[in-house]
TrEMBL record:
Residues 3-247 form the FAD dependent oxidoreductase domain. It comes from the Bacteria. SUPFAM superfamilies: FAD/NAD(P)-binding domain. This is FAD-dependent oxidoreductase. It comes from Thalassobellus suaedae. PANTHER family: SARCOSINE DEHYDROGENASE-RELATED (PTHR13847).
Length: 270
């Protein structure tokens, strides 16, 4: 049995704690909040193997520039003079190639499928209960240009072995009669599923507490101590915690030493 500290109590951190606790390790979760709010609680809860096209795709920079100056767009970033920001944009642009997209597709597909499978395994284990449903996701379109794009993606999804069906307007209305008359069709990704993140996070957290996982909330990590190129302790504003292994989740800190992370996690991108 190892003593493991997880820094970050979002969905990745709690799922890591779940698997480590199941393996019999002594787990402590540190978080700067009380783990009751944040993106892990309020995201859409989609488990989407259909989302296998990376964001860094050809044409996204042009579209992204348009979105950046629209505060209601899905990619709004407040314009500012920031060297790090422009450096990130440049590196992002270099990645938006057809070759990189082709390399990323099988990786993203497998990541999403495995994530979905892990949620289904959790539910089947009966360790704790949460809402899960596999009705799929509709990618609707209202013009011929979008229709052609969705057909292309759906064709690639079929090639990747995913379950997807193209629906015309009449077929779509039978499934979703509340949609606008402007919608002319949709791709129905039956491979996709969804759950309720806020309920999942609460029930998982309760299971972890009942199974020996310690939570140290409102603890902001300030520093690490390393020996022989390994992290041996972490310091917050009030305490120092020692452990055999550390899992850092969504952590932003420049550190000049390496460390081992044993990490198995279920993750929902949406």
């Amino acid at each position: 049995m190892k003593k493991v500290i997880i820094i970050g109590g979002g969905i990745s951190g709690l799922c890591s704690a779940y698997y480590l606790a199941k393996e019999g390790h002594a787990v402590t979760v540190l978080d700067q909040s009380d783990i009751s709010t944040g993106a892990s609680f309020i995201n859409a809860g989609y488990l989407t193997p259909s989302h296998f096209i990376p964001l860094a795709a050809p044409g996204i920079i042009t579209q992204g520039i348009k979105w950046m100056f629209n505060s209601s767009s899905p990619f709004y970033i407040k314009p500012r003079l920031d060297l790090d920001f422009f450096k990130w944009v440049w590196l992002f642009k270099k990645s938006t190639t057809k070759l990189n997209v082709e390399k990323s597709i099988p990786v993203l597909k497998e990541l999403n499928l495995k994530s979905q499978h892990l949620f289904e395994e959790m539910l089947a284990s009966l360790d704790f209960n949460f809402y899960y449903e596999k009705k799929g996701v509709l990618m609707a379109f209202s013009n011929t240009k979008s229709e052609a794009e969705e057909h292309e993606i759906a064709h690639r999804a079929l090639k990747e072995g995913l379950d997807v069906t193209m629906l015309n307007k009449e077929e779509l209305q039978k499934i979703q009669p509340v949609l606008s008359d402007n919608v002319i069709g949709a791709a129905h990704y039956k491979c996709d599923s969804h759950m309720t993140p806020n309920h999942f996070m609460v029930t998982l957290k309760n299971w972890l507490k009942n199974n020996g996982v310690t939570f140290k909330v409102n603890q902001e990590v300030k520093d690490f101590t390393a020996k022989n190129n390994q992290i041996v302790s972490v310091t917050t504003q009030t305490d120092t915690f020692e452990a055999d292994d550390f899992v850092l989740v969504q952590w932003q800190l420049d550190i000049t030493f390496s460390f081992k992370i044993k990490f198995k996690s279920a993750y929902s991108r949406r």
